[in-house]
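Comment thread on ticket #2218

A.B. wrote:
> Attaching the input chain for the structure job we discussed in standup.
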Amino acid sequence: MSAKYPIISITGSSGAGTTTVKDTFEKIFKRENVSASFIEGDAFHRYDRETMRRKIAEEKARGVDFTHFSAEANELEILESVFAEYGRRGIGRTRHYVHDDAEAAKYGAEPGTFTNWEEFGDSDLLFYEGLHGCAVTETVNLAQHCDLKIGVVPVINLEWIQKIHRDKATRGYSTEAVTDTILRRMPDYVHHICPQFSLTDINFQRVPIVDTSNPFIARWIPTHAESILVIRFAKPQSIDFPYLLSMLHNSFMSRANSIVVPGDKLDLAMQLIFTPLIHKLLERKHRMS
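C.D. wrote:
> Ran it. Output below, let me know if you need it in another format.
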């Protein structure tokens, strides 16, 4: 962690909804006049799309499921060096993974490839969004560098519904292809994704209140109004729960460290929770400057 150059890490699986959290942070940064450097977890994949496909096929021939969820499929050592360098000096480097034609036009690179590495810096804080922001392995410890760690963790059926619908709509995949990906990733999900949520400061878990028993035939994603939101705090003593309960109508506490909020109040809940935490990070930063 770094008092002078704070790092915020948003961690979640593919289809979990981390982009929604990122959008809320961007609103807060704009409103509070905070400058942030952004890095994406996909930028630290080890292989481009075609190379990854070949690697998956090679490993499958050996009886091994190789997925983006694993540490071996990502440049986590480089990511940790970026976190460490930013924490020391407020500078770093990143690149972009080009997902589709729209991003290809934006970045001038083919879909499935990476842009060149670029330096960044001169910001109030660093913001990471991706799969491995709190990953700890035998060789890296990303969690130790982050000043605010947030997990985005829908219940598993909802996460699968969101992924299926997203991949079919934006990437042209079939339900069968997405289902195959989900199955291949399951061991890595258990071993590499889930453990991170024990290291986060706050977890946001969306729970549908409609039937999602068979996520593979769901015709639409449950809306936020058809969900509740369970928010868990690792350090509840620092949270003003009476204030949150008064501001978030129909919310209640389910445990001493958890509050349950109507799903359609997700954005408001995040604004109320994150804004004072960002202020604390910046106040500490200014004291060190």
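A.B. wrote:
> Thanks. Noting for the ticket: The CA atoms of residues 8 and 102 lie 27 Å apart.
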